[in-house]
Every structure is written in C-alpha cells, then in structure tokens.
From TrEMBL:
<protein>
    <submittedName>
        <fullName>Dihydroxyacetone kinase</fullName>
    </submittedName>
</protein>
<dbReference type="InterPro" id="IPR050861">
    <property type="entry name" value="Dihydroxyacetone_Kinase"/>
</dbReference>
<dbReference type="Pfam" id="PF02734">
    <property type="entry name" value="Dak2"/>
</dbReference>
<dbReference type="GO" id="GO:0004371">
    <property type="term" value="F:glycerone kinase activity"/>
</dbReference>
<dbReference type="GO" id="GO:0005829">
    <property type="term" value="C:cytosol"/>
</dbReference>
<dbReference type="InterPro" id="IPR036117">
    <property type="entry name" value="DhaL_dom_sf"/>
</dbReference>
<dbReference type="InterPro" id="IPR004007">
    <property type="entry name" value="DhaL_dom"/>
</dbReference>
<keyword id="KW-0418">Kinase</keyword>
<feature type="domain" description="DhaL">
    <location>
        <begin position="6"/>
        <end position="206"/>
    </location>
</feature>
<dbReference type="InterPro" id="IPR012737">
    <property type="entry name" value="DhaK_L_YcgS"/>
</dbReference>
<dbReference type="GO" id="GO:0019563">
    <property type="term" value="P:glycerol catabolic process"/>
</dbReference>
<keyword id="KW-0808">Transferase</keyword>
Length: 215
C-alpha cells in the first residue's frame, strides 16, 4: 500500500507523542554531553507543529505536511535541533509533493532528509551526530525497496537501522557540535540527536502500521 496525507499527519502526531514521552530521556542524554535542552526543545517544537496543523486547512499533499513541520520547527526550536530537523523536513517536503508515497517515495523522503541534515550540519557518519542514525536508515530503506518491500516495510527497515545506529554512537568520540568540546569524555554516551532521530523514524513506521491495519 502507499502512504498518503493521512499517514503523514499520523506520523507527525505520533512523533509529537513519542517525543513528549521521551522528553526526560532526551534531556538527560543531552545533559551528559550537551547543554541539556534537546528534549525540551523538540517537545516544544512538535507541540507547536500540532497546533499549526490543527489550525490550518487540511493539506492535500504529503509535502504540505512536511513543509509545515519544517517551518514550525525552524521558528520554535532552539539550538542546533531546529535548523537540522527543519532542513531535513524541508528537503523531504520538496520530494514529496504528491498525494501518496510508494516504497521509492519513502526512500526519496529519507534520502532528502539526510541530505538536508548533512548540508546544514556538515557532519559525516562516525562523528557522533544524528547522521549516525539517518545514514543506516537510508541504506536499509534503499536495500528494502530494491528487494521489493512495501512502503511500510521500507520504513520498518529504516527504523530498525536508525535505532541500531543510535546505539552505535555510544562508544564514539564526538567531533561535531557541543559534544565535541568534551573530546574523549564524550565516549560512553549516546548522541541525543541520533536518539531522537530513531524516535522520529520509528514513529513514521508505526504510523504506517496503523494505516495498514485500518485500511
């Protein structure tokens, strides 16, 4: 099955829910190697996104939803998270100006999101950033789609890879962002951006599963 605007809206709502549920965890992860505001900033940002969507005309295209997420996060989320996530969603919006996404469309969405994060943050895999969750997610999505997986299955593969990628940041030494100030002391702590990225991508898969179950 394809994933339409209803799925995109469900993804955003599920993201807001899981970010709220994991706010304290993300705060604690960021407190260990950053400034401790990642969870609070994202929670505030996605709450604002929900408010914006609730007060707007129903979107027609998947990209319309993602553009609203992008612009709202950029204007409400402080620190690095706002520009990084905002650019990811904005790039994704540009390749999803359609009524629904098939497996290839999901891959394009994830690829564009990663490209936006890299363009904004200049990070590469292995530097203990959200790129370490997004890169394996994109690779897994590409592989799944190439093997004939459905749009939902592509997202599940991406979510599993993102979660593994976030865990894999634990032993890394940060070389980008505020965590890089700690040098070797950043090792042994999970990157909060990678952790939140895994939550966001898992939320997309869960929203797809819900859509599939009610179809």
């Amino acid at each position: 099955m394809s994933l339409d605007v209803t799925w995109a809206l469900a993804w955003v709502r599920r993201t807001a829910q899981v970010v709220a549920e994991n706010r304290d965890l993300l705060v604690e992860l960021d407190r260990q190697i950053g400034d401790g505001d990642h969870g609070e900033n994202l929670n505030r940002g996605f709450a604002a996104v929900i408010g914006k969507l609730d007060g707007a005309e129903p979107p027609e295209l998947v990209g319309d939803v993602l553009k609203t997420v992008a612009t709202t996060l950029m204007s409400t989320v402080g620190g690095a998270a706002g520009p990084l996530y905002g650019t990811a969603y904005l790039r994704a919006a540009k390749v999803t100006g359609v009524a629904s996404l098939d497996a290839a469309g999901v891959v394009a969405l994830l690829e564009a999101g990663l490209e936006g994060i890299v363009a904004r943050g200049k990070a590469q895999p292995g530097e203990k950033t959200m790129v370490d969750a997004w890169t394996p997610a994109v690779t897994a999505a590409q592989d799944a789609a190439a093997n004939g997986a459905s749009a939902e299955q592509v997202l599940v593969a991406a979510a599993e890879a993102a979660e593994a990628g976030a865990v894999a940041t634990d032993p890394l030494v940060a070389t980008k962002g505020r965590a890089s100030y700690l040098g070797e002391r950043s090792a042994g702590h999970r990157d909060p951006g990678a952790a939140s990225s895994a939550l966001v991508i898992r939320a997309a898969a869960e929203a797809a599963g819900t859509a599939s179950a009610t179809a």
